[in-house]
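Two entries, shown back to back:
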Amino acid sequence: ILLCSTQPNSPKIHEGWWAYKEVVQGSFVPVPSFWGLVNSAWNLCSVGKRQSPVNIETSHMIFDPFLKPIKLNTGGRKVGTSVSQVLQ
């Protein structure tokens, strides 16, 4: 698992849109199936289930040797994942 923090490049108008629930604090928020309709550059988001348009700038990444291992609490449920890359 790769975790990183980046400065968003998108306009502030999009900041509140990235949620996986249709209602956040009483307001409708487009879920992944709608993200691809908002911006054609995010069209792959319409295909998956829990995806968001993330632009990881590897030139801005910094390795932190002091990070502790991630602990996931899944409530006893088994969790599986798959990863794929699309290279252009």
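entry 2 starts here
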Amino acid sequence: MEPDEGADRTPLLKESQPGTVPACCSARYNLALLAFFGFFLLYALRVNLSVALVDMVEPNTSLAKNTTSNVCPEHSSTINVPRNTSGKKYSWDADTQGWILGSFFYGYIITQIPGGYLASKTGGKLLLGFGIFGTSVFTLLTPLAANLGVGYLIAVRALEGLGEGVTFPAMHSMWSSWAPPLERSKLLSISYAGAQLGTVVSLPLSGLICYYMNWIYVFYIFGALGVLWFFFWMWLVSDTPETHRSISHTEREYILSSLKDQLSTQKSVPWKQILESLPLWAIVVAHFSYNWTFYTLLTLLPTYMKEILRFDAQENGFLSALPYFGCWLCIILSGQIADYLREKQNLSTVCVRKCFTLIGMLESSLESQIHLPPSQEWWGQLLPRTSLIIILWENGRLFSILLLLLIYLEQFSLHYLEVEKFRTGQSVVIACTETEGNTEILKLC
């Protein structure tokens, strides 16, 4: 009798696994650490414009098309700190700002499928490295592009998206060769937690740079760090354990023996099986839904903080980062908890993934439906409309949504590595799903 397609085939008992190798100073955890910093910079490069744009636009043009009365009054600071006002200002209306913010995703969706294909054929090291390197170089060119005109800025941001579009397929391709089954959640959660920490750090740091220096340095600083990371990545990382220069023999054998029954021998992408797989399409739908909420908040939250809640660049960066701090903690903890449930409690992989996904998606969707602007809430007349209440309400709600979404995110990233029959074409599958989710961002414009 054939086993059920959704059955969990990964052995969970320690006795059935080869002897483990300590994590400290191991090649696989060094890879996770470098990937962590790579995705840290990846998301810093992605979101820094959202804060910098607040300082790049003339105040009298940013609200030109905003006719709503549901806008907070200006917030006065109790500390009078001189701010730098030397940065050039541009008269971009709301539509133009929408095109600028959305242009990144025009490039991002183009390289998803080619990136997945190249990762499957050539490995992820070069693809991920040059993807972040290219994004960093174009980030360094952003101030020049802004001076040349809106069209140039949109083009540069789209080129940044082209570079970032290959990164997630490349990373998944590498982990399919590096991550032992019982360490998979830990290794991937460490890697992708860098994305959330990059958001947490870059949003307030970008605000401080804009406030005390000049918005152009937002792009120069993060772009230079991305170029520096590229050289460390190319020097220290290999596509597979077999080609790593300094991995110990014990660790190499541990990784290869733990994956020997999972590495696919298919030479081509199984498109027919992909299109006919209901479990895989369930992951696609979930990924699409996640991306819609997450990227809407990621891209537009600083603008919302400025236009509606009326915070300046310095306050904006800190307040926009608060929800993502919880996300960063959550993605680390959820990976550890998932592996604990599988290894110590003998819960099946399918059960753990489904439960975490259900918690993350269902609760975050409920949280996102309960918000109305403060003036429209029944209790709005009972409380003074102070900035503190608005901060706590808005960031508390967004914290809840993003925290729950990240519980889900850590799990659906692993689903791709665990749909056994598609492990060869996994990166292409990821690319297709990313494209679906991010295409919807175009509607933001």
